[in-house]
Amino acid sequence: MKKILLSFLLLLGQPALAAMSLDKIIFYLDDAPNARDDVVITNPDKETLYVQTEIFRVDNPGLDNEERIRVINPDEFRLLVSPAKAILAPGERKRFRLMALDRDLKEEKVYRVTFKPVVGEVKSEQTALKILVAYQALVFVQPEDGSYQLELQADGSQRYLKNIGNINVEVVEARHCPSEGECQKLDISGRLYAGTSLTLEDLPTEGELELFLRGRDSERVRLPLGS
Q: pLDDT tens digit string along 6-20?
């Protein structure tokens, strides 16, 4: 779960954590009307929790020129979060709804949504440090006919695993299998967005590359290694 240390409020002694928890942080939405999903935020603290949200559009995801642009103009909102801010009493749970407005996509859109605690009052007779920890959710809005497609490519002596599809997939684990039932784990993992690739260091040229993949579903695929 991705956490972001936002800021500190120096008051006086023991650290006080503005705590919250999310039931999930990765979302898959369709480019269809009424596409939506929910995240439940819980306040396990003994103090009231104030939460704000921020939406970022991710341009060129996974590439060297990737940009995360905060969306603040109402005319540019293609992903909505409701409520945009909320107050949670101690022990309270609240449901936040994510709704996609993108339609007829040729390639998936990527967003990040930050759920950020806001400073409230710290009651303490001692010096205290209040730590604010935000969580950032990853949101994929995908075309109806979206699919990832992995292929092995070479550029001189260097080899790559490239996603030539139009949605992302995560390589959770990879193994080299020179023969059936004989496989060795490789140091290959990471998320492959559409049009991006992973460099394959010292990959053998015989047998198969076995990949354990995770997206909306999980699967195992094997790619033949050519000489």
A: 544 444 444 555 579
User: Could you give the CA distance from residue 193 to residue 175 in angstroms, rounded to a whole number?
Assistant: 21
User: What is residue 73's DSSP assignment?
Assistant: -
Cα torsion 180, 184, 186, 190 to 10°: value is: 60
Find out whether 111 and 55 touch, Cβ atoms under 8 Å: yes
Instruction: Quote the pTM value.
Output: 0.86
**pLDDT one-digit tens code per residue, 167-225:** 999 999 999 999 888 999 999 999 999 999 999 988 888 999 999 999 999 999 999 99
C-alpha span between 140 and 184 (Å, rounded): 32
220 within 8 A of 212, measured Cβ to Cβ: yes
Burial (CB count <10 Å: 0-12, 13-18, 19+), residue 10: exposed
Locus of tokens 């930050």: 114
Residue type, 48: T
Distance, in Å, from the CA atom of 115 to the CA atom of 125, rounded to the nearest integer, reads: 29
Neighbours of 67 (CB within 10 A): 11
DSSP string, 143-206: -TT----EEEEEETTEEEEEE-SSS-EEEEEEEEEEETTEEEEES--EEE-TT-EEEETT--SS
Strand pairing category for 26-30 and 127-142: parallel
